[in-house]
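FW: tagging you since you asked about this chain on Friday. Here's the raw sequence from the shared folder, copied in full. Didn't touch anything.
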Amino acid sequence: MKIGLLIYIADDRQTYTKRPYAEIRDAAQQAEADGFDSIWIPDHLFYRQPDEPTRGIWECWTVLSALAEATQRVELGTLVVCTSFRNPAILAKMATALDEVSDGRLVLGIGAGWNEPEYDAFGLPFDRRVARFEEAVQIIKPLLREGRVDFEGKYYQARDCEDLPRGPRASGPPLLFGGEGPRMLRLTARYSDMWNTGYMGEPETMAEPLARIHAACDEVGRDPATLGITALIGLWFPEFLPEKPAFLENPLVGTPEQIARAMRGYADLGVQHIMFQLAPYTAQTRALLSEGLRLYRASA
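HL: got it, structure written out here
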């Protein structure tokens, strides 16, 4: 099982101060040195909540491209790119270029989006997001796999479109879908190489998500064993952040030994790849996770 780390590229959650790229690069390089298999970054335009200041975040693809040059070994993933933010044919072109720059280390995670204030502020259509996603996939996947597509949809068109030159992998980077609703699960089962669910805690929290994705595979006639299962784990350190973040319902909590035990539990379930999002996100908590990774690898 592969172990990854979500790298924060947004303003500090408590102080709203800018997170410099140098800090982002250092965290990514440290994760690689510590033995993580992958690093992941989110795709947002800002974070806006009622009665709070707007919290900024760097543009995902620009930062990921820079990290492709700043690292040597780790896989680079998006968790996940919103297909509504960019033309899907151009997104496929971008993915091929980044796969070339990184020498075949990209995992293209995509999703339908959810945060309406971003759409409103940047003039993007918020309606029919899953329908738009379904059309986007029918452009992105053939461009990555075969290098060409001819598609005419209600929302997107890509007529006699080619993705040239080709990247380092004949079939392009793997596709990972992030989504939980019934339609998104069916689309995942039909089109994706991997599926991501979050925010998970102890391994037993995977029981319900696994049942739902297996049912979706059965519905479309796919062998569930052919779909890679990945999980974003919310890892909370209450000794450093007493109030549990609202976005974490049932987070993983524990010492490095307990973290290593949870990793073994996910591996026993057949999960292919897990990624950790830390609360709080500091050098100290990253070091504790790295120690858990070391213990997991030693026991394996």
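FW: The longest strand covers residues 228-236.
HL: agreed, and Residues 2-299 form a domain with the TIM Barrel fold (CATH 3.20.20.30).
FW: great, closing this out.
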